[in-house]
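Report of the visiting student (M.T.), summer placement. My assignment was to run the structure pipeline on a short list of targets and document each run. The first record concerns Xanthine dehydrogenase family protein molybdopterin-binding subunit.
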Amino acid sequence: MPLHPRAATVPAGTPTKITQGSTTPGGIGESTLRPDGTLKVTGEFAYSSDMWHEDMLWGHTLRSTVAHAEIRSIDIGEAVATPGVYAVLTYDDLPAAVKNYGLEIQDTPALAHGKVRHHGEPVALVAADHPETARRAAAKIRIDYAELPVVTDEESATAPGAVLVHEGRTDHHIGHVPHPNIVHRQPIVRGDAARAAERADVVVTGDYVFGMQDQAFLGPESGLAVPSEDGGVELYVATQWLHSDLRQIAPVLGLPEDKIRMTLSGVGGAFGGREDLSMQIHACLLALRTGKPVKMVYNRFESFFGHVHRHPAKLHYEHGATKDGKLTHMKCRIVLDGGAYASASPAVVGNASSLAVGPYAVEDVDIEAIALYSNNPPCGAMRGFGAVQACFAYEAQMDKLAAALDMDPVELRQLNAMEQGTLLPTGQPVDSPAPVAELLRRVKARPMPPERQWLSADAEGSSVDVRALPGGLSNTTHGEGVVRGVGYAVGLKNVGFSEGFDDYSTARVRMEVINGEPVATVHTAMAEVGQGGVTVHAQIARTELGVSQVTIHPADTQVGSAGSTSASRQTYVTGGAVKHSCEAVREQVLEMGRRKFGTYHPAWATAELLLEGGKVVTDAGEVLAPLAEVLEDEAVDIELEWRHRPTEPFDLRTGQGNGHVQYSFAAHRAVVEVDTELGLVKVIELACAQDVGKALNPLSVEGQIQGGTTQGLGVAVMEEIIVDPKTAKVRNPSFTDYLIPTILDTPTIPVDVLELADDHAPYGLRGIGEAPTLSSTPAVLAAIRNATGLALERTPVRPEHITGT
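After the run finished, the structure tokens were exported:
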């Protein structure tokens, strides 16, 4: 039986420094191998799309073929009559009074009713005994649409008499936006930017465009819903946040949350695209209607419509500086297109505005950020979350300002770099290390990659390796017309949920003896989406409990929420919860030891006691008892919540407030070679320096930085969802036409890791996953500008932007 089981809450801001310096192998600071790594690279890992149930049906979603239209009628007769079909559902079949869901604003219908608002919106569901039968039956559903005018940009969204994407809004943002087609607006005003501009010797402005990027995770949306005997449902799904899904699913199904049991299945990447619901409600509806398990797996075409994307943006910036390079002021206006439904747009606006100045000290700022409702595809969370778009613009501005001042662009950045104690535009001080200037110094000081790497000597002289040239194996050049360019960028990203959100995680830790050995089990609801959280949790348990055997319990909703696997927060927040639960377990174990053995050795009462190598030891290394003898047949089982320091909402008029809990910083140097005749780009090297606070697993840290860097490279030169501006229909929903970097596109990515501890965080760590996605994109753009002399104020850069054709 467990000893002292409990669920409790640790007060926010509880100190989180190391409480036990364990030397147990496999603890924090080591590059322990991922438990899922070998299975994934050998193709043996079970992803959610691999799940199977003997008598399961297959679900399919019918989606709208137009972006904005009234639904006059839906005829399902032919689909229902198809052999092998068990159910066809539309809006009228939804079982509860609640029909909509959403992360913050419940504006997204489970199935369209009366109107569709974007291309690919779910309209009907089919369950059949074979996936192809379900698809063919869905194709037989007849929908009569009356098309409506589309809203596609700010002009059409806010023009007099503009079509309203959502009529009769009642959400809490409607009271402070200037138009119903604006989801959220956040101004940030500090000082007097207009007066400060009068002191500027140089003023530069720019209008920038950031394209719509897809998360492009390789594992498509999938899940298995199994009806249970109590009238509930068990859902096995690939997601980023089990408890958020549960909170949105239950009202639409008309079930209490305890009748929906969710378990995380294998996730093939996420990057924000699984934070919103996709097939979860649909699979459950079909399972409950048919009384049979229902599996749903999107193909790649469906996946492009089944999740949100990164917000495209238009950004206007103005920077001023004195002749010696000191910034005088910054003004900007950021317009994000949120698409048809709100998703995470309000929070993205908060990030984009509060981080709009970047990692620089500027006293006088005037910032406005808005997100639109439109009939374009819904946009929401993606790695970088609003800070990516802003970084692209402010770093282009810093290069433009350096050119106007005839200064080195790195030196200009270093001159204005924020540091610990700097006040952000929101009035919040940076209260941990901010090594912006040092990160820039490090990437600049790196040796340059050799020139003309495509040439190699052989017995007959020189030969050309076209793989190292722009255009690669298409053999478009042997070096003629190829020019090298070098560019730099640095970015600022917040860590964790912000603006007063109750950002906590829960961890349950159990210690017991199994087969004579002490074993720790860690149970959280954290979604492992590839970031390596399961590895780090085991490392924390080994460090804090001094045991080598650690089991990670599958993530499910039978334990308290671990929050979202997003915002670079999981190692910080859920890692913090695991650490504190382990500390509580350790204290319980030591108390057991004191009761059992305290009379045999005075050190039980007088010495500082540690758990090391499966034993209770003193800080001098003396062994007092094996853990197996302390525990015997008892178990210690404790569940705790843990919160980081509280944040607060930004003032809706001035934007002032301590809105963020932590910041992360990364800098990049990009080296590119550009075929100026054909407009083709080859990125040769993309070096990164990043402060991680404390590298709990150095190998995983390096992998995260390289992965984020590659995603930033993608949106710099190739990735963009193309939406027809006249019809709001997606033109390229496939990996044939939506390009992502392959191994041939990915350059060498040397990584320089700093470890400057944040004393407020567990082990001094910083969230790391997003920061490299910010600065890699503008660094690549800066390098292309350096090679070509072109302004290049949009991303991604296409060949025609370079050639002018």
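Residues 685 and 748 are 5 Å apart (CA to CA). The longest strand covers residues 482-495. I thank the supervising group for their guidance throughout the placement.
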